[in-house]
TrEMBL record:
Belongs to the prephenate/arogenate dehydrogenase family. Pfam families: ACT, PDH_C, PDH_N. PANTHER family: PREPHENATE DEHYDROGENASE, PREPHENATE DEHYDROGENASE [NADP(+)]. Pathway: Amino-acid biosynthesis; L-tyrosine biosynthesis; (4-hydroxyphenyl)pyruvate from prephenate (NAD(+) route): step 1/1. Residues 2-290 form the Prephenate/arogenate dehydrogenase domain. Its EC number is 1.3.1.12. It catalyses: prephenate + NAD(+) = 3-(4-hydroxyphenyl)pyruvate + CO2 + NADH. Keywords: Amino-acid biosynthesis, Aromatic amino acid biosynthesis, NAD, Oxidoreductase, Tyrosine biosynthesis. It comes from Paenibacillus curdlanolyticus YK9. This is Prephenate dehydrogenase. Residues 295-363 form the ACT domain.
Length: 363
């Protein structure tokens, strides 16, 4: 039996647990410092066993996944370094930053265990075990950050286990990881929060702001709803990188300010052209850095029962919807439904079915 211990069974830890649980030879043990959480993990059937005892969870474990906010990772490593761990035990984490945790593991004597940093590039603005899903990692990139001292055999063992997540494992240097993820994930979260708070303040004096907030604002600010504790830790932990990125960001905004002041209509157009070109050249979302979403948009006339009709038609064909959202709905104006699916196959079947039913589908 291979024992997998998961510390912090929230969105990320719970999703890993669901990928591993029920597979022959695997025994998944969850850990939380809170007894109420331990009960919850068991009740929801996410783990085989759960405990508040760090020692009980860690001893005899073949793999230990640290799935707590990044500000607590070093503390967990220190506590683990004081235990007698199983020889060859692989300790890994899912934290959104990698430099500090890998440096901490290097400083500590974790032997006979081996530390390999990890960061699944999948997730959402949701948090907690309630949001966990066995599909979360499917087709996403899963970064691991071994260094020259990490035994190849351990890297291969971790890779093999992670196959159960259906993610694509990639090896990246820890510092390079923090530079890149700072730009493509941490900066966007910070900008989303600053923008949302800017509009929140205007809205205090005039609630029309929130009433009119539509597509663009909602698209760019979804991640502003992310967990405050998780994100506070990430930004502080990646402080140096963030400060550098903010400087570049300010320069970009200043350029817009200059172009507007000078009435530089060409320059503004050029900024949209180059950004559009780059944005359109990004890998398709299902192969990209953030998690795979299989979705399409359907134009629908705004009349009663339309959502019911579409879901019934898909249900009749045994096509599973994972989410449905009305993007716009005003009287006499066609609305748009965003339909999400768990697999490419479900999406493909839905597109064919909706086409046959004369709906206009786009991506
Ligand atoms: N949310 C996301 O989309 C992604 C998050 N991550 C990383 O995954 C890790 C976990 O994040 P989520 O699962 O989203 O958060 P979560 O809030 O859903 O789960 C965190 C878990 O850690 C426990 N926890 C919270 N504070 C703690 C503390 N101070 N000490 C010990 N346990 C504590 C919670 O009880 C919970 O079980 C973080 O390090 C985050 O950077 C990585 C990729 C994506
Ligand atoms: O919700 C989203 O789009 C995300 O960006 C999820 C996410 C959050 C944190 C990470 O370290 C990686 C991915």
């Amino acid at each position: 039996m291979i024992k997998i211990a998961i510390f912090g069974v929230g969105l990320m830890g719970g999703s890993l647990a669901l990928c591993f649980k029920g597979k022959s030879d695997l025994h998944v043990v969850g850990h939380s410092t809170r007894l109420s959480s331990v009960h919850k993990y068991i009740e929801r059937g996410v783990v085989d066993a759960a405990t508040t005892s760090l020692r009980e969870a860690a001893e005899d474990a073949d793999f230990i996944f640290l799935c707590v906010p990044v500000g607590s990772l070093n503390d967990y490593l220190e506590q683990l370094s004081e235990l007698e761990l199983k020889p060859g035990c692989i300790i890994t984490d899912v934290g959104s930053t990698k430099s500090s945790v890998t440096a901490c593991a290097r400083r500590l004597d974790l032997s006979p265990a081996v530390f390999i940093g990890g960061h699944p590039m999948a997730g959402s603005e949701r948090s907690g075990v309630e949001a966990a899903s066995s599909y979360l990692y499917e087709n996403a990139f899963y970064v691991i950050t071994p260094d020259h001292a990490t035994p190849n055999e351990a890297v291969e063992r971790l890779r093999q286990l992670l196959e159960l997540t259906k993610a694509n494992v990639v090896v990246v240097d820890a510092d390079e990881h923090d530079d890149i993820v700072g730009a493509i994930s941490h900066l966007p979260h910070m900008i989303a929060v600053a923008l949302t708070n800017q509009v929140r303040k205007y809205n205090e004096d005039n609630s029309l702001y929130s009433q009119l907030a539509a597509g663009g604002f909602r698209d760019i600010t979804r991640i502003a709803s992310s967990d405050p504790n998780v994100w506070r830790d990430i930004l502080v932990n990646n402080r140096e990188v963030m400060l550098r990125l903010i400087k570049d960001w300010n320069e970009g905004i200043q350029q817009f300010s200059d172009m507007l002041t000078a009435g530089d209509i060409e320059g503004i157009g050029e900024a949209f052209r180059t950004s559009g070109e780059f944005r359109n050249s990004l890998p398709e979302r299902r192969k990209g850095m953030i998690h795979s979403i299989y979705e399409c948009y359907v134009d629908v006339p705004d009349h009663p029962g339309i959502i019911g009709r579409i879901t019934t038609e898909l249900g009749n064909r045994r096509i599973n919807l994972s989410n449905i959202q009305i993007i716009e709905s005003r009287e006499d104006v066609p609305g748009i439904l965003r339909l999400s699916f768990r697999t490419q196959d479900d999406l493909d079947q839905a597109v064919v079915a909706l086409g046959e039913l004369q709906y206009s589908v786009h991506f």
